[in-house]
Write a structure and sequence with these properties.
By secondary structure, the protein is mainly alpha-helical. It has helices at 2-29, 40-51, 57-64, 66-70, 78-91, 116-123, and strands spanning 54-56, 92-97, 106-110.
């Protein structure tokens, strides 16, 4: 009976080592930033730019935290707007402050990222 328990314990340790090693390898294969561009806020920001050329911080925050507002009945807190501004700063550039709305939210325009073809044409 004791040998059986020792055998089970050794088998469990081996499985744990294999699982740890495979998860470490998965992390290595994903590169430096595996979630780049796939976060909830970044996806909400990109979807906002599909609808309009210029979006406000408040519009993106309401879209990103809709579950918080609609399902839980909670308000968006100041830290959430800070998170949205940080995500927007990666993919958009601030252009102005809005004239309407409380606190005058920042307006953002999607960054124009030059393609490699544009660089080749300017050299010629």
């Amino acid at each position: 009976m004791t040998e059986w328990k020792e055998c089970e314990r050794a088998r469990a340790e081996t499985n744990n080592r294999k699982q740890r090693k495979s998860s470490q390898l998965r992390g290595l294969n994903q590169g430096g930033a595996p979630a780049r561009g796939r976060g909830r806020l970044q996806v909400a920001a990109r979807r906002g730019f599909y609808l309009s050329d210029v979006v406000s911080t408040a519009e993106i925050a309401q879209a990103a935290y809709a579950h918080r507002i609609l399902l839980h009945g909670k308000r968006i807190e100041p830290c959430h707007y800070r998170f949205v501004r940080r995500a927007l700063s990666l993919i958009a550039e601030p252009i102005a402050r809005s004239d309407k709305g409380p606190g005058r939210p920042m307006l953002w325009r999607f960054k124009d990222i030059p393609s490699s073809n544009d660089n080749d044409a300017s050299k010629a």
